[in-house]
Amino acid sequence: MILLMPIAYATGFEQAFYNSSMPLFIHSSDPAFDLSAKLYLRAALGVFMTATSFLIGPITDRFGSRSLVLLCFAIHVFCQPILL
């Protein structure tokens, strides 16, 4: 996983430039600030994805992936009425 961290960051930067997958709400009068904010946001997403991979891996090793999928499904079912 540690060796995959630079690839996750590089993928985030690539998506920021080529895929236009960054949020459009980051818009100010300074384009350089907008770009840096978007890149920092993508880097934070890469860090979060790496950290959750480190946390979820041991959980799935201990309980199996099926129980984790059922837990995520239950969380989504619980949250849907709250969002309405």
UniProtKB/TrEMBL annotation:
InterPro entries per record: MFS_trans_sf
Domain of life: Eukaryota
Name this polypeptide is given: Major facilitator superfamily (MFS) profile domain-containing protein
Originating organism: Physocladia obscura
